[in-house]
Design a protein that fits this description.
heterodimer, A: about 230 residues, mainly alpha, 8 helices, about 70% helix, globular, B: mainly alpha, 4 helices, elongated
């Protein structure tokens, strides 16, 4: 009964969406602002990756709000899980085999290096702070799953997260003091397609990478602590 | 057009799971599928036929065939936020399980505090 009602409801919604989407052409350019970013983005921001120039330059204030949402979700998860009494029920888990343990310890720095590469080169290649941060957090997930008993210090992730957020806001305020508006790209743009180019974009994206990485690592830490 | 069908297929699968299933973990899985479908729909709105990624990686790339970068920039942050919100939902599920001893929504509704 419940399934039939759901299917009927979804069918009505689907009909409405089909009727409205049939008028929109597929595969052609629909917005003018996207074309403007593609045409002018490289001269105005110095970044070869237009998506990065939108995320960190044209709409950097929006990105600041979005990493705040991420921060609030991480804090909420910590608050929800930490109200339980910490029961020390250290089960004697079987230690991982030598091959698994050594493999994890071997791969961990390489994954960290790859994540750092992704977020440092965010303005040149596909990638950036969000993706690089997720890769860094996956390295910590590997440590938690593979090498049991090891854990990241909780205070360390908090400090890195706060410092990275502070760097973002301070760079924005420096733009305000130099040129008159928040998150102005006040550093020299340099030549495109070079690592040291695009003004504040690499700095802000590295800060975002550290912030996302430490937040996701903190989330993993909280969830693994709960399952123990 | 196949992208729209795929995206809305995922969205309706997710909505159907949310409406029908009674296990909270399955509802959260449905939310995740719904999230993926919405992201895919946003990306496919910005698609241009035979387009390339909006990155000037080599000197001589023409800009006329680049896909719309704005939906990509929006989805980029939405994916990471989706992961964090999923983790928050799972933590609430963990708390509910410790409180009620079940994840079945029907049984949780019957119980009083």
């Amino acid at each position: 009964m419940r399934k039939i009602i759901s299917i009927v409801l979804l069918g009505i919604v689907a009909l409405g969406i089909i009727l409205s989407l049939a008028r929109i052409p597929f595969g052609v350019s629909k917005t003018k602002v996207g074309g403007y970013y593609i045409d002018k983005g490289r001269e105005e921001t110095g970044a070869a990756n237009i998506v990065t120039s939108i995320v960190v330059n044209y709409r950097a204030f929006d990105t600041l709000g979005e990493i705040t949402v991420l921060f609030i979700a991480a804090v909420g998860l910590g608050a929800v899980l930490s109200t339980r009494k910490k029961h020390k029920r250290e089960q004697d888990l079987e230690p991982a085999s030598l091959v698994l343990y050594t493999g994890c310890r071997f791969l961990f720095p390489l994954i960290l290096l790859f994540g750092a590469y992704i977020f440092i080169h965010g303005h040149l290649t596909p990638g950036g702070g969000f993706q690089g941060g997720a890769i860094v957090a996956s390295a910590y997930l590997l440590i938690y799953l593979g090498c049991r008993g090891r854990r990241i210090p909780e205070a360390g992730t908090k400090v890195i997260e706060s410092l990275a957020g502070l760097v973002f806001v301070v760079v924005g305020l420096l733009g305000l003091s130099f040129g008159g508006y928040f998150l102005l790209n006040f550093l020299p743009k340099g030549t495109p397609n070079v690592l040291f180019s695009a003004g504040i974009i690499p700095i802000v994206y590295i800060a975002i990478g550290f912030k996302v990485g430490s937040e996701l690592a903190g989330i993993i830490d909280n969830l693994m602590e709960e399952s123990r | 057009m196949i992208y729209y069908i795929g995206a809305f297929g995922l969205i309706f699968i997710g909505l159907f799971i949310i409406l029908v299933k009674r296990n909270l973990i399955k509802v959260i899985i449905g939310l995740s599928i719904l999230d993926t479908g919405v992201n895919l729909f946003l990306i496919s709105v910005g698609y241009i036929s035979k387009g390339t990624a909006p990155i000037f990686s080599k000197p001589g790339i023409e800009s006329a065939r680049m896909v719309d970068p704005v939906p990509q920039a929006l989805v980029l942050t939405a994916i990471v936020i989706g992961v964090a919100v999923l983790a928050l939902a799972l933590s609430l599920a963990i708390r509910l399980y410790h409180h009620y001893g079940t994840l079945n929504l029907r049984k949780i509704k019957e119980q009083r505090w």
